[in-house]
Amino acid sequence: MAGFLPPAERRSSALLGLYAALSLVLLLVGDRVPQAEMRGIGAWVFAPFDRAVLALDRAAAAWRDNRELHERVAELEIENERLRLAGVENQQLRMKLDLPAYRRFTLRPVEVLALAGEPVPSAATLSGGSHQGVHEGDAVVTRDGLLGRVGECYPGLSRVVLLTDVNSAVACEVESTGVLGVLRFAMTPYPRLTLTGVPLTDTVRVGQAVVTSGLSRRYPRGLPVGSVRRIGSDPSGLLQDIEIEPAARLSRIRHAFTISRPAAPEDSP
After folding, report:
1. Of 86, 102, 118, which residue is a domain's last?
2. Which residue segment(s) compose the domain that 49 sits in?
3. Are residues 178 and 45 in the same domain?
């Protein structure tokens, strides 16, 4: 009957018969086949192909990452140039208005050695002290935003009062509108940061950035604090109840920076 079948079907029939024979042989002698040696031979045979595929995959991933990095660098260069021009313009305007120039920050790197406080950490111990140029009242930040300020300073260590301390108060403003308020930590109805003292007549929207206002003299102006997460009204009905999503995450900090406090004396919070 094979003579009546087309060549392609004859080949398929032959292959099917071969597979059936191999399956029967494996069923009969499978237990006696040295499987470890067979696996070793298979690994040796296919190892060059595996390495080639892995190399091609890594090369493709590196090419994609390199392209994304080039795009990001170009975007940052454009943004840096825009900010530089804006800074020059701002400096010229401040000179014309006889306003003092903004002070540059001096960042001192420190390591966060420990967190203290329950149920939410309210203090942190830093690896830097007076011998490293850290002083009481210095602001403490991460790359994401403000952590708090140095409350106690020793020769080789310092203790930070975090934003989550119930006695902490930071004068802030909503970045895009200039709405002023004081950032405080509240434990009720649940632990959260709130922007207090904001009248109902002021316009604040969810998602807006909140930064230090510089009005308290405790913190330099413009440090990122967080963003508006939720807006309501307080029990009095006269002020807004604004919940803030912190920019710096206490659960992720291992390294931080200190910023020297402004030279003027402290006054209001």
Report:
1. 102
2. 7-102
3. no
Q: In this structure, are strands 240-246 and 123-126 parallel, antiparallel, or unpaired? A: unpaired
pLDDT, tens only, 112-136: 999 988 888 999 999 999 999 999 9
- What tens digit of pLDDT does each residue of 51-99 get? 787 888 888 888 888 888 888 887 888 778 777 777 777 777 877 777 7
Number of folded domains that form the chain: 2
